[in-house]
Amino acid sequence: MTSPQLSNYLVSNRKRLALSQKEVAFLLGNKGGAKVSRYERFDREPSLETALALEVIFQRSASELFSGLYQKVEQEVMERATTLADQESNADKRQIFTNIANRSLN
Fold it and tell me: Is the pTM of the predicted complex or chain greater than 0.85?
C-alpha cells in the first residue's frame, strides 16, 4: 500500500470529465466503482494495465496522474544510480549512471 501523503490526480481528472466512479470502473473493465474509489484513496495501487487504461481515459500520463508516487520512485532510482556511479570503473557506464542520478525533479 502506498503512503497516503503521496498525491494522485484521479479524482480531479474524473470530475473534470464529469465521470462517476462506476463509469470509470466500466471503462476499466470492472463492474462497480469500489476499485476506483480505492485507487483514488491510495488504498490500492493499480496494475500497470490499469494505469495505462487511466492514461487513455483521462488523457494524462501515469506519471502525471500518480505524481506523488512517481516522485518517490524517481528519487529512489536516482539514489541507486548514484550508488552505481560511485562503484562503476567503466567511464561510459559511470556517465550513464551519473546522468540518471542528476536528473532534476520537476
Answer: no
